């Protein structure tokens, strides 16, 4: 077979994305149909996907752990809300304060640091002695996960070919749904074998060793060449691009990046830039719909076991005996696992359609579908028996499918695409932080409002939030499908 050759154009200075997007050419002039991913590109993808997996694992596992925590610490409704919101508040702070540091210190540095922070607080959580320390450790763990929101997106999107960006970023994000399902199953397995109030500690401890393996793997990936160029460090960018694109046979044989590549060395990087000029539109699109979908996604996700237990006539919140609490918790976990399967189906559909249909149409459709699912679930409050159960399951399953097809997936994808390179980490981090305000509000207020307003009124409020998300997406739409990151936000 003929060796691959470097085209004459490669002798000229080009951008990082030019090299990443170029399909190899055989010696007879035949161009390869698609750009083959290198081993390093796949390694980066897997390590980024692992971060989303751990987020889904620990955040959604909290839904199974909460009844046991409440029993051990004797929590009232207010304390229940604080504990539920702790990790989400940490995500908010981490995305806002640490996410932007990837623009200053580099994608790789934060990619490694965030996982180390996660491991430390995860280990502390497993041995937490009191309610106060449990809240603190959940918050610290959330800070690490918040940093991962923009950083994981950037290390993938800045290292892969443009035509595959949507489906690869979303497929990595889909591991959040895998983590949610595994987290629920881990909780169920632990409860099946350890009927003690402290069983929740083992649930979190189970993630420590896998997280350590991921942190170790992240030490051996190259820095984002696009970020290095944006900082004016072109020679380093060429070296790291060569590590990223190393193939056998070699292609490209040499990388010569343009010394006059469009970079933003002298441009401002403070938070106010996000609210100026055309960037404001990107900030609204990236942040507001994400906020609105998090109101519903985290409320439904974390409290699915609680709502199911109530719908099935096994309200664990009223149980006093440990045996009853564990039995109710296991029953709810079974139902939650079935519903969470639709998260996987939804993200799989999003992966298949994002680069074909486009981000904006899927986000609007998803919001409308979420509203429909929540409305179906609300109808269950008018019925009893099997009809009630059927409507709850049907509504939540439709919601989980549509949220991962649309807003839960597309908001994450868009937030890492609509900002220029020099503020991409800060922009994506701000959007994730603003979104988590909605998640924190939901996690804190949900158990209180569930008692004060009831399930029906609460679901109606979430229906309205989903419809508003569709409207905002349409009004501030910026379609990024098929566009190179180099050309977005200029």
Automatic annotation (TrEMBL):
Regions crossing the membrane: 44-70, 82-102, 109-127, 133-156, 168-190, 202-221, 271-292, 298-319, 331-354, 360-382, 389-406, 426-450, 457-476
Membrane topology annotation: Multi-pass membrane protein
The keyword Iron-sulfur appears for this protein: no
Boundaries of every Major facilitator superfamily (MFS) profile domain copy: 44-481
InterPro entries recorded: MFS_dom (IPR020846), MFS_sugar_transport-like (IPR005828), MFS_trans_sf (IPR036259)
Residues spanning the signal sequence: none
GO cellular component terms, A-Z: membrane
GO MF, one annotated term: transmembrane transporter activity
Keywords associated with the record: Membrane, Transmembrane, Transmembrane helix, Transport
Keyword Membrane appears in the UniProt entry: yes
Compartment annotation: Membrane
Family statement drawn from the similarity comment of this UniProt entry: Belongs to the major facilitator superfamily. Sugar transporter (TC 2.A.1.1) family.
Protein name, UniProt field: MFS transporter
Species assigned in the record: Xanthobacter dioxanivorans
Lineage: Bacteria, Pseudomonadati, Pseudomonadota, Alphaproteobacteria, Hyphomicrobiales
């Amino acid at each position: 077979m003929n060796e691959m050759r470097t085209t004459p154009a490669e002798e000229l200075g080009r951008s990082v994305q030019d090299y990443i997007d170029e399909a190899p050419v055989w010696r007879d002039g035949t161009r390869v149909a698609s750009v083959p991913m290198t081993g390093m590109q796949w390694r980066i993808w897997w390590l980024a996907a692992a971060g989303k997996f751990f987020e889904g694992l620990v955040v959604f596992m909290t839904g199974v752990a909460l009844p046991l925590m409440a029993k051990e610490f004797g929590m009232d409704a207010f304390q229940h809300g604080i504990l539920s919101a702790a990790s989400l508040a940490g995500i908010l702070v981490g995305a806002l304060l640490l996410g932007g540091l990837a623009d200053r210190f580099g994608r790789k540095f934060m990619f490694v640091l965030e996982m180390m922070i996660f491991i430390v607080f995860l280990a502390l959580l497993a041995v937490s002695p009191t309610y106060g320390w449990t809240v603190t450790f959940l918050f610290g763990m959330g800070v690490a996960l918040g940093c991962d929101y923009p950083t994981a997106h950037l290390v993938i999107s800045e290292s892969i070919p443009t035509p595959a960006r949507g489906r690869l970023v979303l497929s990595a994000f889909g591991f959040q749904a895998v983590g949610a399902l595994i987290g629920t199953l881990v909780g169920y397995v632990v409860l099946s074998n350890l009927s003690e109030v402290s069983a929740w500690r083992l649930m979190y401890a189970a993630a420590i060793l896998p997280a350590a393996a991921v942190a170790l793997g992240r030490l051996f990936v190259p820095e984002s060449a696009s970020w290095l160029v944006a900082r004016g460090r072109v020679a380093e960018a060429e070296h790291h691009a060569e590590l990223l694109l190393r193939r056998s046979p070699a292609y490209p044989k040499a990388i010569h990046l343009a010394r006059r590549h469009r970079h933003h060395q002298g441009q401002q990087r403070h938070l106010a830039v996000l609210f100026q000029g055309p960037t404001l539109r990107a900030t609204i699109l990236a942040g507001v719909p994400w906020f609105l979908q998090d109101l519903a996604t985290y409320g439904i996700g974390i409290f699915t076991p609680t709502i199911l237990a109530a719908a099935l006539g096994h309200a664990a919140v009223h149980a006093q005996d440990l045996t009853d609490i564990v039995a109710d918790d296991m029953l709810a976990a079974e139902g939650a696992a079935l519903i969470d399967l639709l998260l996987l189906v939804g993200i799989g559909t999003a992966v298949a359609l994002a680069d074909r249909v486009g981000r904006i149409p899927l986000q609007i459709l998803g919001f409308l579908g979420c509203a429909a699912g929540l409305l179906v679930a609300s109808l269950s409050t008018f019925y009893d028996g099997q009809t009630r159960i059927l409507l709850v399951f049907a509504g939540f399953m439709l919601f989980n499918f549509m949220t991962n097809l649309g807003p839960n997936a597309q908001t994450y994808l868009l937030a890492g695409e609509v900002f220029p390179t020099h503020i991409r980490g800060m922009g994506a981090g701000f959007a994730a932080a603003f979104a988590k305000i909605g998640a924190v509000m939901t996690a804190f207020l949900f158990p209180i409002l569930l008692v004060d307003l009831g399930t029906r009124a609460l679901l109606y409020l979430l229906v309205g939030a989903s419809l508003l998300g569709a409207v905002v997406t349409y009004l501030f739409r910026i379609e990024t499908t098929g566009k190179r990151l180099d050309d977005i936000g200029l």
